[in-house]
Structure prediction request, 801 residues.
Amino acid sequence: MHLFPRSDAARRPWVIRTFSQQVEPPVVLTDLKNTGAFVCGNWISSTAKLVDGGNLEQALDYFNEPQGHPSNVYIDRHTLLGVLKACGKQKYIACGQRSHGVLIKYGHAIDCLTGRALVYMYGKCGLLMEAQYVLDKVPSRNVSLWTCLIGAYADHGHARKALDCMKRMKLDGLLPNSVSFICILKACGDIRASHECLRIHCEIVKLGFEEDVFVGSALVDAYSKSFYLLEAQKVVDVLPYIDSVILTPLLVSYGERGLSEKAFNCWKRILKEEIYLDVVTLKCSVKACGSTRSLEWGREVHIEIVKRGLEINLAVCNTLVDMYAKCGSLTEAEVLFHGLPVKDVVSWNILLHGYCEHDLGYKVYNCLEQMRRLGVPPTTVTFVCCLTTCETLKVGQEMHLEVNKLGIESNKYVVSALVDMYVKFGLFTEALKGLDELTDRNIVSWTALIGGYAEHSLGEEAMHFFSKMISKGIPVDVVTFYCSLKVCGDKSALSRGQELHAFIVSEGFERDPYIGSMLVEMYATCGFLRDAEEVFYRLLAPTVASWTSLIVGYAKNGLTVEALNSADTMQLQGLPMNAISYACSLRVCANAGVLNQGLKLYTRLVREGFERDCLIGKALVDFYAKCGLLLEAQNVFDKLPSISSVLWTVLMTGHACRGENLQIFELFRRTEEQGIEADKVTFLSLLTACSHAGLVDEGLYYFAYMYRGYGIAPSMDHLNCIVDVYSRAGQFERLSFLLEKMPFQPDLSTWHIILCMCRKWGDVVLGRHAFESALLLGENPHLASLLMFSICMEADLRGYV
Prediction:
């Protein structure tokens, strides 16, 4: 029995079109064959349904079959366009090209409707030249057709071509619609074309689309990707309706920029306005917590995830493990990880990466051993993490053998990690061998080698390979420039840094926040603060790192006011200070003796939860000690988990400044009891204390112990302390003997010490000798002249000076 009587042939096209939506295509097609009336439009409609369902090979077979019955074919263009749409959706180019051929064969005009279907199909399949060709052949194009091509270029990463299409569309006298704006804004966001975003935003306002939620969402996304966050926020504020799709890109960008407070405000707004939280928004919120190291916020998001029953979602849980690891709460990361009902290799790699970030090499290898026992196959990411934290050369070589056994030794990321590992241990020959064996020498492996040389302060070698990389035509990226700039941080390498800066400008990287920060640091370290400021103020959006580099530069060059003003401006602009910027600002206050400003900084950092940070703790000890608050310094000192010899010395110096000599000797005794290695600065504090207290024998003991006990050769500063010890005690014979036997020529400080002694003891003859010797050095004579004048005044020899 047939579905259709042979006498109803006229009704078949409509009936089949309707019925084919309810009956499986092969049934309809079989019935059509049996009736002997081939209704091609319906045949193609069924083909479209097969394509839409993913039955691609079967669809092409059915599509080819009517070609053998040309006398009975009826063409229905509408259903043929449906096939093109289905082929585009499934990226099935063979069937799509066959449809295009049918259109041409039966003389259908390529108008806007047909052209759009073809552009859509070719665009989705990635054949952009064919899509462009079809559009160019349409005699009278409309906005929908142009928008389809703009969207195709944007989807495949050809942002500049998408922008060119928009310009050509306007030359056709056509104005963009909301979909056009959405497509072009995606292209602008992908290449961070901030100026184009601003221009398009003006057009959106002019054409009255500024309150369109979908256009607004695309605009927020484009601004967020371009880090124009103030503009993005303004767009959000004027939209009549917001949802998680609009706020999520802004939240992510705030997180990437380290703007924890603004990111958290986005999150609070989502909760306050009861916006639906989907998996994507929750994952992005967790990532923002990790990026900003906001542990408390991360815990709050975790609670929301549990409330919505998403704690069983492996992708969400993996993101949570990553967040806890980045925030330094490895215990919580481990608890969550071990509680996962199912763990994939991504879960293991995230935990490995967390250990890697905190330089816990032993935990990395314990984790790797567990993976082996459980039969979890390691990936390239696994080996990269393990090689990065390799603590011994032997372990690194064993990992290299395992990599070879698994046949991934030619993977560019693994090779780069191997190069990095060998360079870390100073085995540059092995590193170069690994690079030579790599057939595809990529940017990652070259950068690893340059970075290795930079870490070992081998600037010439690093720049040699940088030049070699450029000569081979290998493109450089932000990381390559970052590694190369690390070897340009002193005055001797400044000319090299300036050449590199010129190349960075020519490549368009100068405004990158990471490169900008390194350039600011380079110029500031070398004392070229005007150049540092010029680079800084050219940055599109200075980051916390950029501001910190500028603050450090001011501090190193003694510009206290500028450093503290920069710290204040940074916070006024909504950028949170990090541990480094706080520590640097505290050191500025310590060196300048600005107690009130330092106490304000302390209040702020406690409020932001930095008081337990080791770097902050060390800076606080230095600040309190130099400001004379030794009890507070001792309290912070006692709470630190690990104390270096530098901190002991800072505390000793603080006591020395207040003349508390017994405390200095007691602190030194404690350092020796705890097995802490004293350094030359420690002994300088001890010798200073001896000279101020007039302890000659103790001073000579520590001077001798410095070399015999610790192998520290005395510097000019140490010798000047002994000169001061003898001078204060009035032991002229010992002083003369020391000046004759010193391994260094006396410097200006030496003669100033002796002049002070001569003034105290009234020795005009030695004073004259010291004064004349100071003048011969050709340095600043003012203090020497003043001291000699005082000696002569007290000895009633006013005519001498």
